[in-house]
Amino acid sequence: MPSDLPLAERRHSVAAALRARLPERVVLSDPEDTRPYECDGLAAYRQLPMIVTLPENEEQVVTILNVCRELGVRIVPRGAGTGLSGGAMPISDGVVVSTARLNRIVRMDPYARVAVVQPGVRNLAISEAAAPHGLYYAPDPSSQIACTIGGNVAENSGGVHCLKYGLTVHNVLRVRVATIEGDVVELGGEALDAPGLDLLSVFIGSEGMLGIVTEVTVKLVPKPAQARVIMASFDDVVTGANAVASVIAAGIIPAGLEMMDRTSSRMVEPFVHAGYDTDAAAILLCEADGTELEVEEEIGRMSAVLEDAGASAIAVSRSEAERLKFWSGRKNAFPAAGRISPDYYCMDGTIPRKNLAQVLRGIERMEQEFGLRCANVFHAGDGNLHPLILFDANKPDEFERAEAFGAAILALCVEVGGTITGEHGVGIEKIGSMCIQFTRAELDTFFAVKRAFDVSFLLNPDKAIPTLHRCAEFGRMHVSKGQLPFADLPRF
Amino acid sequence: MPSDLPLAERRHSVAAALRARLPERVVLSDPEDTRPYECDGLAAYRQLPMIVTLPENEEQVVTILNVCRELGVRIVPRGAGTGLSGGAMPISDGVVVSTARLNRIVRMDPYARVAVVQPGVRNLAISEAAAPHGLYYAPDPSSQIACTIGGNVAENSGGVHCLKYGLTVHNVLRVRVATIEGDVVELGGEALDAPGLDLLSVFIGSEGMLGIVTEVTVKLVPKPAQARVIMASFDDVVTGANAVASVIAAGIIPAGLEMMDRTSSRMVEPFVHAGYDTDAAAILLCEADGTELEVEEEIGRMSAVLEDAGASAIAVSRSEAERLKFWSGRKNAFPAAGRISPDYYCMDGTIPRKNLAQVLRGIERMEQEFGLRCANVFHAGDGNLHPLILFDANKPDEFERAEAFGAAILALCVEVGGTITGEHGVGIEKIGSMCIQFTRAELDTFFAVKRAFDVSFLLNPDKAIPTLHRCAEFGRMHVSKGQLPFADLPRF
Description:
Chains A, B: Residues 45-223 form the FAD-binding PCMH-type domain. Two copies of one chain form a homodimer. By secondary structure, chain A is of the alpha+beta class. Chain A has helices spanning 7-19, 31-34, 58-71, 123-130, 149-155, 162-165, 168-171, 199-203, 237-249, 262-272, 292-308, 320-331, 333-340, 356-370, 398-415, 434-437, 440-453, 468-474; strands at residues 27-28, 51-53, 75-78, 95-98, 105-109, 114-117, 135-136, 172-178, 184-188, 212-219, 221-222, 226-234, 256-261, 282-290, 313-316, 343-346, 349-350, 373-378, 384-385, 387-391. In chain A, strand 5 and strand 6 form a beta hairpin. Chains A and B meet through strand 9, helix 8, helix 9, helix 11 and helix 17 of A and strand 9, helix 8, helix 9, helix 11 and helix 17 of B.
């Protein structure tokens, strides 16, 4: 189909081609119907899609892919739209494929400890369905009440427990994928290892660029008999950051190890009354889970390490209710930010734990430089930072300053040997920062693999991996490994 | 270079091209020098390589790749040659790239708990170097005294502790890879997650088909304060197999959970005096590790579960010496097989734990069918079987019967929802069985990814992934998912 047709005409003919092979209710083309799909959690960027499809089974997914491939129409897969990096942002002349109606739990096997679910099943719904068997699905993004397992697969989502239990990639055993060629392939399996190339891992976190997932087999883990959490206060952020390293260095892998600075705890406390020490420069939340004996021992060891590391106060949850209260503040940090600032920008960089203090000091300096406040609340145990940059989009250039602030934080993360994303993905938000993270040969390799799955670049194009042209425009040179990969491109 | 040149001439000119750019000692072309490289641990297959190279640094690896690419010469990467599936079997007109001289520990960082090593460093040497810091590298293949980390990466090796600590893919953070294009790329990183496609996981276990690893960053874990092992006896194999499932179902992840049948324990006991109950139809070894309290609690819980599951006797190691004695039998099962049978064939299939009993009974039946004995000694907790088929290659068609027996075991593994390899790779040994495991679309996807890294198929060609032609010759149809992928090929 010639792409220079006026949009309305193109919409009309693509919709007709889809409707010829799919039930009426599966294809939305009226802008009134497609408006709700114009953005995901990165709401600063909006684009009305040409068409939205809501397939109800795998066969319909394959049909949509076949029609789009035959017509050369680009596709944006979409889960619940809670993503924070714009991975599900539509294309003006593209088709959104929403997995919202693929929401069936196919099989729950408590004996083998696996659940087979469709991609539109919500993260929390899996744990709810597994609860009668004493099991749950471990990765727990803050959005777990809304986000879907298909979206989790696309972004390789984490959560507060992934220090101990791993990211999505560590908890998914198998995916069924509809490819742009209209094939259905299975990647991975229920066995510990699979022969052939590990395409499951490459698919997880591929941000909708390699295929559309139609079924996911997840690992379930036993609900620990008990969990308790320590809240430790620190008089300065550096001492708190170093305490994180001490806990890990002592050979303890807490079930959660989170840090909040004073800006964050003061932001959230009036809102949720979590009982936080708002005088402390930083607080750490360290959870132990397991049998009663295990928890008792680990809480004891962690308390000792935290005291040695200079904690000014230590409180341990005395009941499940108090444990949940301690966590409620952490889990509601983002909504709380919305109460004290008209807008906020949530970053997601990951750094080696040993550089926590250095990067936090760097962010402090940047607050001055960019004239914006930043609240730090993050997965300290993983070194996964979530600085919340507070701004007001209605004030002149605050949005631009917030973006520049965010990019500067990511550049610092890469500089100390970290990465530009921990769990939120690259999407459109961080595509420029990818040019700092990777060499040209590395980006080339990504594209080669992308091409192996999708030779015409129809699946979620222009997301996640920047072209060399884009990097040249971005004007960044990757130098962290002593190479200047774009040396043969014009300098800026 | 035209490939129809006589071999001697071709050897001469390729060696000359290599020697023009590399020190003399790096290139071996005399058959007397290259003979030791004619096979790996799958010694039934032998092939003298045209040339062997022994690069001493990354730059030399890149040079060898460049020369081979320019001349269109195929390459077989090789670690210590302990692999059991023929992944390092040479090609008559190809160049072997051995990593033997890339054996330097580059950096040991006990604070970040990582070691950076060259690919030729032996698996055990990493743990030895980390020991002064109270750390070790977890995956422990039986061959760990000899096998190298580069080979472990190529095969995604496991070991007796991988139920709790994971396979190579779970313990490697980053690899540096020299590609066939002569680029050096880094895959993965020290952070919990990396942006872009997860090419680290696809590289691990890719059996030398995607590039040559020049540096590996591994995770180190703290040496547990204590470890103890239970030896549980069972009157029949089925009860033992079901006990394995019971342990896991009780929410326990033992540090090791291994099973040996009577054939195995009687084979090994006279040789190592491990103290095994040779009257039992099967014994289980279940290890707990951690702090003293944790170990005590877990040993107690495991003993209770094993008793409930029908163990006829239970012994718990009372000292570190006794623990090592219990394990010594398991670790020496393969050499012991060599004492009672002129030859043995070690299989490596993985099945869902719930099918253990069914598959073991199936193997028993096959012993009659193929007229050969089989000793079963395996990673029961992972469902990773290692049936040892005992035969005498000097007797007419025993080798062929052993191969057919092995293929039948793998077919049974796939039938019950398992896979044809747990940790030994596909290599040349199981390339036929791949046709049963995967659909045509799945094999196509593997090839597309292979092509993304190596468009001319110069890197370890004809290993691991079968061509459709090969599957047609093999005469197998993949039907386990209700599809007949090769339906358009001639039937056999």
